[in-house]
Amino acid sequence: MDTEKRSDEVILARLPTSHAESAARNPCRSGFSFPTKKRRQRTARTRRSRRIIYEIANRALRRIGVLADPYPLSADLESANHPDETDGFTLVEMVVVVLVIGILTAAGMFAYISMVDKARVVQAIGDVKAISLSVDNYWMINDDYPPNLAAVGMNNYDDPWENNYVYTYVSNPAGGPRLDAGGNPINTDYELYSIGRDGATSAPLNAANARDDVVRGSNGGFTGLATNY
Predict the structure, then answer these.
(1) Is the pLDDT of residue 210 over 90?
(2) CATH code at 200?
(3) Other Cβ atoms within 10 Å of 216 Cβ, number
(4) Domain span including residue 139
């Protein structure tokens, strides 16, 4: 009680004279009221909790090198205040470190897989264009399309997903045309495509297992993913 009374007297002493006298006479009417003991304790607990959470997260991130230590002397001061404590990880710090590493690893793996898949699509597009050029040259010389890719020396080509490129010419009864979303053939000369990452395909380009195909369409005017046709 004596401590609270002294703290109240200090607060009054810091106020202007008119405010101090008014607060002393009638604190309710003056609009000034001293914080209660429970309120001060609650405020102190809140500040301590925030500081503890901040220190734990900050220390964990500094230890794994994510953040630089903004207070290089804080560790020395803490060690001086607690000389018997070992410089090891607490359980909470280890959990924070594991979570941060897991998040960073997942994000990195997703970006890496996406980048590799895009690179493979680009490679498949280049292969389809190269094979298409050989087929067109064969047609210019022989006035007919080759019966298979072996006729143009391209039968040993595999796509980036280690599947064979598919070639059929439209006039060949054994082959079937690829169809757009409206059911129309995307070529009138020949079909040339990769069956994509899933290793499966269907004639319509909007089929679930055909959307990742790399196709030649519009009689060579388009080469790319089936989803983009």
Answers:
(1) yes
(2) 3.30.700.10
(3) 28
(4) 111-228
Distance between CA atoms of 159 and 150, rounded to whole angstroms? 16
Q: Mean pLDDT throughout 170-194?
A: 83
Q: What is the pLDDT of residues 79-136, one digit of tens each?
A: 444 444 445 567 777 888 888 888 888 888 888 888 999 999 999 999 999 999 999 9
**Which residues are CB-contacts of 164 (< 8 A; sequence separation ≥ 6)?**
157, 158
Assess whether 95 and 124 both reside in one domain.
Answer: no
CA–CA separation, 165 vs 199, rounded Å? 11
Quick one: 70 and 159 in the same domain? no
The per-residue pLDDT for 136 is: 94
**73 shares its domain with 17:** yes
The verdict on 71 and 172 lying in the same domain is no
What distances in angstroms separate CA 61 from CA 91, 92, 98, 167, one per listed residue?
14, 12, 11, 55
Number of H helices, E strands in the chain: 5, 4
Sign of torsion, CA 89 93 96 100?
negative
Task: Look at residues 143, 138, 145, 131 and name the one whose alpha carbon lies nearest to residue 175.
Answer: 145
pTM of the model: 0.56
Kind and range of the H or E run holding 169: strand 166-169
pLDDT tens-place string over residues 122-136: 999 999 999 999 999
- Note whether 34 and 57 are same-domain residues: yes
Is 105 within the bounds of a domain?
A: no
Q: Which run of H or of E encompasses 2? A: helix 2-14
